[in-house]
Amino acid sequence: MLSITSESWPIAGTFTIARGSKTSADVVVVSLTRDGETGHGECVPYPRYNETVPMVMAALEAARPAIEKLTSRSAIAGLKLPHAAANALDCAMWDLEAKQQHKPAWLLAGVPEPKPVITAFTISLDTPEAMAAATARAKDRPLLKLKLGREGDEMRLAAIRSAAPNARLIVDANEGWSPNVLPAMLKACRNYGVELVEQPLPAANDEFLRGLQRDCLICADESAHGLDSLPALKGKYDAINIKLDKTGGLTPALELANASRAQGMKILVGCMLATSLAMAPAFLVAQLADYVDLDGPLLLAKDRVPGISYAGSLMQPPPAALWG
Predict the structure, then answer these.
(1) 232-254: pLDDT as tens digits
(2) How far apart (Å, rounded) are the C-alpha atoms in residues 90 and 102?
(3) Which residue in the list 99, 145, 243, 266 is annotated as catalytic?
(4) Is 147 noted as a catalytic residue in this protein?
(5) Which member of 80, 103, 139, 147 is catalytic?
(6) What one-character-per-residue DSSP string does 291-302 give?
């Protein structure tokens, strides 16, 4: 039996990136029940990828007869679902399989037994003064992710570094820079100790990155989706942001992580704004990652119960009662 529901989780304040602001995390939850066991998966339809909550729910509903007959995760690809929908379904099937076999999902996936990881903590895009104030409140967190991508970013970097002199920094420009400002911004990032910059240019304009002298790692996000997107990243990016909502689930995310590693790319595992139910399967990919950005629940006004436990930025493995 298939259940499809939409939920809206308030954000603690407002979350702003170069493309705009939001005050809630709108998710779709898929639950699949068989033989008395129920598996759950959560996704975030993202308008940047032409996916919305109503669209994803409608696609899942239209595929209900086929979904309720599914016998393997590998068959999900044949349903031609939106990526977010495929993600929720894939993760629900992982959870169901773990419960039916009485084995943890990490063992079924063949990844190392999950250990706690340090997640980045996101500083939302704002004025230099507001971002410095938010950074000061988070200055003891070891890894901060700065949302940039608008005029005045160098001033933001200066203010943030002053507020958190010891924190490691990564930057996400969300396609907000242009080729003419990129060299100066990468130099500024280097000067302020930024280790990695995500998606500095629009995905359609990232050919400029090929062969570009770089002062820090450049990571593909909007340019990176599933395995089929990997060949085009070579020569342009040093790292890849793997998000389950982009790959279409944990199954293809693990395949992409292994293929990326084989090509010598660094791995960042990321998330959309969502609850612990969405972070739990991504936590398995985090065991293979160089950078972890799974702070979605930390940015919400409240999370699921039970949820993932965070001690500051130290993220614990998900409880079995949540997922997997």
Answers:
(1) 999 999 999 999 999 999 999 99
(2) 18
(3) 243
(4) yes
(5) 147
(6) EE---GGGGBS-
- Confidence label for 18 from pLDDT (cuts 50, 70 and 90): confident
**If you average pLDDT over residues 256-285, what whole number do you get?**
97
Choose among 298, 251, 292: nearest CA to 274.
298
Name the band, by pLDDT with cuts 50, 70 and 90, for residue 263. Answer: very high
Nearest to 297 by CA among 287, 288, 306, 289: 306
Entry pTM: 0.95
In sequence order, what DSSP letters do the residues of 133-154 get, joined into one string?
HHHHHTTTSSEEEEE--STTHH
Q: What is the DSSP letter of 204?
A: G
Close Cβ partners of 2 (under 8 Å, ≥ 6 residues apart): 30, 31, 32, 33, 60, 64, 67, 68
Token pair of 80 as six digits: 């031609």
Element housing 14 (H / E): strand 2-17
CB crowding 34-43: b at 16 or more within 10 Å, else e: eeeeebbbbb
Quick one: three-class SS letters along 29-44? EEEEEECCEEEEEEEC
pLDDT band at 53 (very low <50, low <70, confident <90, very high): very high
Instruction: Please give the average per-residue pLDDT across 51-71, as a whole number.
Output: 97
Secondary structure (3-state) at 317: coil
What the block records as the tokens of 142 is 């070891």
Number of neighbours of residue 294 by Cβ within 10 angstroms: 26
Q: What values do phi and psi take at 189, rounded to 5? A: -60, -45
Count H helices, E strands: the chain? 11, 14
Answer whether 295's CB lies under 8 Å from 274's CB.
no
Dist. CA 202–CA 226, nearest whole Å = 18
